[in-house]
Amino acid sequence: MSLSIISPGLLTTIQDLGRIGYQKEGIIVSGAMDALALRVANLLVGNPENEAGLEVTLLGPKIRFDEDQLIALTGANLAPTINGQAVKMNRPVFVCQGSVLQFAPQGSGCRTYMAIAGGLSVPTVLRSRSTYLQAGIGGRQGRALKTGDVIACPGPSAVAKQFWQKMLAATPHKTWLQAAWTPSPELYQGPQANPSIRAVPGPEYSLFSTDCQQNFWAQEYTVTLASNRMGYRLRGDGTALALMQPEEMLSSAVSFGTVQVPAEGNPIVLLADHQTTGGYPRIAQVVTADFSLLAQVPPGGKIRFREVSLAKAQRLYCQQELNIRQLRQALRLKMRL
Amino acid sequence: MQRWSRTSQAQIPATNFADKRELNLFNQPMQNQRRGQIQWSQPQIYPLGDSGIVLQFSRVYNAEVQQRIRACCTYLDQLQVTGLLEYVPAYTTLTLYYNPWLVSEEGRLDPYARMTEIVQAMLAQVHTPQPEMAPTLVEIPVCYGGKWGPDIEEVARYAGLSEAEVVRLHAEAEYVVAMVGFAPGFPYLAGLNKQLATPRKHQPRTLVPAGSVGIAGQQTGVYSIPTPGGWQLIGRTPRRLFRPRQENPSLLRAGYQVRFVPITAAEFEQQNRHES
């Protein structure tokens, strides 16, 4: 079983939920930028949530399925088509051998996730299949996918096969089919344009003047072109954020969602490929429940930060886990019916 | 849905890093410390977002802080708590990452309060210097100067020393890994002879080869993977600091001791072949 990459798109990488446990050795977490979208995609094809899938960035790849497969697309809607016909997001899709998936150059959001029933056969490096581009490990030979890559797949589970056979029995003679249902938007919504991103004050928040603090929450920020999987460089209205007194800081841990402010005064939000430690003042920390929204803002997109308490942030986290659990239970029933 | 609610907000520290008395962030090691007789003081504890908790032991780096962080790491290596994901030691802080849903028993408890308890239990156990903590010593062979250390001349000129003296001073010191960060397996080493302190390069290199030994201010370190970088390069080691196929991929960890051993170009070539 395999997938063939006819063209790779702008940046298509293999990601799971990240390489956890090695940050003390300076090894970054990597993993899907929009982890929620990857988890949902995996659930939609009957996979464990942490299975490796493809992360597609802005300009999608062209992929041929060398055998019958069950897939799901979540995250950004980059106008996907199968054999030239539009395919809907957020549902199981059966594709028959030889089908070709591609994307249009326009769409909304930034990153699409494709899960394949049974996952991808790439080696696990340090307990993860995620691509770590800088160190050249994980995923497909530690790099982004390129033309001619053939990625082996272990093949779908019995449940997935049974599921698509039922789909085929209902509508035969098609090269591909999609389920008519999709998760309720209360459980999984997907990207939003110009989102409001909730955050809690960071460890060095109190070193910024009250004016700076208010300005940070009030400004609209643009995600600049100098943004990537490591972080978004933001540009505001021109008011630089500055500490009340200039500081020399010793490096300390930073994580996904850390908003740090270098000397020039424009904040940077760290993302999946962030370094493990940093030495800039940390003004805020994005709540985990909003990582999915944040990861879907394309270059040029706008965001605002909204302050919430730590207790609220942790309630949002737990709510998201409850949603995932509910979705998992609902899908288990759907796929066995 | 949650049965917990928080009465008081977790405190964001009002640390003022501006205290001019402590602008030198690298302190000399503490004197007059006898094992088992010192009670360590309570660190500052504060959140890093909804999934991180930070212990700040001090605002300056010194031997005591380094020892305490190491003792905590040893404790955490043995600890099994559902939802506790990993920890990151740095110069003066130890950060623990956790999954709030799992540590709170699926939302039944207050996750931050639960983490604070876990951290306090650790501090209650790890409150004095541990007598059995013999540090691991790693020797790193280095071919100094020449094509392996293109900036050695600049470092020598800045220090007013000969290149041979730079090599001697760099290789005779004993270093401690203050933390691993920046790149996989990249050690920030404390203990550089002050005479060798040299500012970073004005224009960072777009690519520094793996194994390059560099100086930046009062720090020295070894590039573990090829990466852009601005440190002054004085030599190169054939040893691999990042070994992705091993269960402990970083050769060095926070708290390890390091000594550099000068080798010749021929030895470098030979050992380099051996390592690859």
UniProtKB/TrEMBL annotation, chain A:
It comes from the Bacteria. Residues 24-323 form the Carboxyltransferase domain. Pfam families: CT_A_B (PF02626). Coiled coil: none annotated. Keywords: ATP-binding, Hydrolase, Nucleotide-binding, Transferase. SUPFAM superfamilies: Cyclophilin-like. This is Biotin-dependent carboxyltransferase family protein.
